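Subject: complex prediction, re-run

Hi both,

The earlier run crashed halfway through, so I resubmitted it with identical inputs.
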Amino acid sequence: SQQGEEDPQALSIQEGENATMNCSYKTSINNLQWYRQNSGRGLVHLILIRSNEREKHSGRLRVTLDTSKKSSSLLITASRAADTASYFCATNQAGTALIFGKGTTLSVSS
Amino acid sequence: DAGVIQSPRHEVTEMGQEVTLRCKPISGHNSLFWYRQTMMRGLELLIYFNNNVPIDDSGMPEDRFSAKMPNASFSTLKIQPSEPRDSAVYFCASSFGAGLSYEQYFGPGTRLTVT
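This time it finished cleanly. Structure:
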């Protein structure tokens, strides 16, 4: 069963703007991870946030986690054309493998 | 490190033929995952191994699919006989650690087309 659902499905912005993507999930989790996939390539791990954490930063990335709402957001600040990709959230419950959502396709135009 | 290596990168075959996809995980990683990605169904976990032992193969679509990991540095995913609906991109990923909470490193994928 699908665990993570990203929203929106597609997002188009201009370079320099911020991009926010959301992920909602259904059951309790151990951690939540965000991955990026460039067209025709494999997924690349961006950031992992554990269920007892609320916010995490990595460079221009900021991830928040609200376990009460079963949701997470990924913020990319000062976006660049190179950020154009699909972004996936993946959740992990105790004893189970990661389940990926269907992704948000981000397009950053210069 | 070269990362996760998959071969072939592209495979075109006719329905009914056997297809074997190969994966070399990152050295030192002890978990290996096979995924399938399609537009309709997204990224699906087919099977994963820990220390070369299959742990969960509940995602394998049917008996036509089989996976092996004879040693820590090599795994295969075989489809026999192949069908057009098997057309997809197949990814192999590896991670370090016995648990399932660790970040995964993906290979470049094998794009399979079955005509």
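Chain B has no helices and eleven strands.

- K.
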